[in-house]
Amino acid sequence: MTAPDSNYETMAEMTIRNSIIENNSARNGGAILNDGNLFIEKTTFKNNLAFTAGAISNGGYVSLKDVSMENNIAVTGAAFINGGDAKIEDSFIIKNIAIGEKRGMNGEHDVGGAVGNSDNLLLKNTSFINNSSPFGSAIYNLGIDIPKLKYLCKIKIEDCRFENNSSHISGEIHNEIGEISIDDSKFKNETAKRGSVIYNDSYLTITSCDFKDLKKIVHNFNLMTIHSSNFESNQSDSAVIENDGEIGILSIEKGKIANNISDYTTVYNHGKDCNITGTIFENNHSKKENCHNICNRSNMVLKEIILKDKTVSIFNEGILTAEKKYKNFIFSVGKVFYLGMENEFNFSYLDELIHSNISDTISFDEDISLLSDEFDFYEGGIELDRDNMVIDGKGKTIDASGRSRIFLVTGNNITLKNIIFKNGHAFDNYFMSNNEGGAIKVYKGLDLKIENCKFIDNISESKGGAINNKGHLTISNGLFESNKSNEGGAIYNHQKLSIIDTCFKGNEGHIGGAIYNKEDLEIVSTKFLKNIVKESLFKARFIPILQLEDESFGGAIFNKKRMVIKQSSFKKNMGLDDTDGAWGGAIRTIGDEEVTIIQTEFIGNYLKDSNFGGAISSYKTPNLIDCTFSDNYPNDLN
């Protein structure tokens, strides 16, 4: 149908199906002006022109289903203006252009939009693609600026797609007056020259939406809630989400904000209030230091958020209320109030105790446990990054609940004493800094002393069930019991390890049931009892490093370099790898470095289904001085 300089006007009821309506023009409603009941299905509106509503102007009721509105042009409402009740579903709104107009005495409002609304509009399963306008390239909610009526102007958006819409000023959706809800919708590749994808000056809710590959996304001046939505891989020359204005109130709940890049920050609050709850922040970056995730300049509350990156990423110049566990991620020149967790002796409590205490000696009087909401914060353990520090547990237990390491040692000259380390777990699929060492990992070249401590039921899926040492470690008067790892059931030593008056009992590994020594090991007055090597505990993750692949080595100790053992005992240590065989019921040593064993007894150590040394299997003959060997058997020959 082509009717230049005219349109259809309906005041009763009309149904249009399977039609093409193109090249029409009028001042209001380039193709159709409706004040009655209008039903349109499987119809295309194309190349229509008007001052207001390029294709359809509605003042009654209209239902559009499987409709395409393409290349229509108007000053405001390029494709559709609604002043009544309207429903658009299963439709496409493509390449419509709203030129825009100035409103107000000073021309301060520039109104546009492919779809404009001032009453009640439902949009369902509809795509907005390549529309352009100065303000609200896809949708502009004009509303009625009368207090009793303004929130009756509603737009409900369900399961819609917004892509490649462009705006000079305020992006794809502009809510000036009224209420908008957006559910289960996707936003991608918006090209606003400035401003935001969603501009809200009234009331707006966003639920279960995805925002990807966009510029600045949200700019709120009034009341907005964002629930269960993802903001990913966006870039902004200011902030990705901004709360602004004297009455701006923003809530972000149970979402994910990841891999965004901004000049200033990811979430910027300088409105009235901002609350963020249960939201994940991961791998966001900004040019402003300490501001990668959040900048607060007014009032903000943070609860149950997850900060995946262990860096200072929250900048506060206002009033911030947060849980204590976020303290190490906050840089503040304003006021911070921490929500009390006085009765929760968890990892957050211990972390704050260590880092807020100016004394060189820190002690705690309660058992410490990792809580379920702390898993993502402490998967690599509490970082001990202070030099010259003593931590005294007074015999109390730190329990990692089988979900994380306990301590990551990056500070020098630290002493740990009177602590029970229990249920630490280093997962091999974590970041490199977070794997190895089920209870403790020591960085290269650092000095650590461990005195009168117990390590029980700790696991590493790669190296060092209890401890992975790359520094200078001294252990005295300790107990290592029931720890497990592929390499070094209790300890994996990369550098220098001294052990005095300690007991290793019931530890398990594939190479080194108790200890894997790669560099320099001295042992004095220490007992090794019932430690075991057997088939790989985490076989899928184990990568053989020796020529004899998959075989088990050293029921108690596997040694590659210098080792000295004095006044110690090895009893009932075992090699049980009945698949590929085991070497050394108590000790397996390889390499050309000197091995010296003095006044040490080997009793009841044995191998199952193997003939390679019931007590010791050595590549080079060790120096044995005043040692006792009794009832050690290869091949289970009891």
TrEMBL record:
It comes from the Archaea. It is found in: Cell envelope; Cell outer membrane; Secreted. One of its GO terms (cellular component) is extracellular region. It holds the Pfam family Chlam_PMP. Keywords: Cell outer membrane, Membrane, Secreted, Signal. SUPFAM superfamilies: Pectin lyase-like. Its main location: other. InterPro entries: Pectin_lyase_fold/virulence, POMP_repeat. The keyword Secreted applies. This is Adhesin-like protein. It comes from Methanobrevibacter ruminantium (strain ATCC 35063 / DSM 1093 / JCM 13430 / OCM 146 / M1).
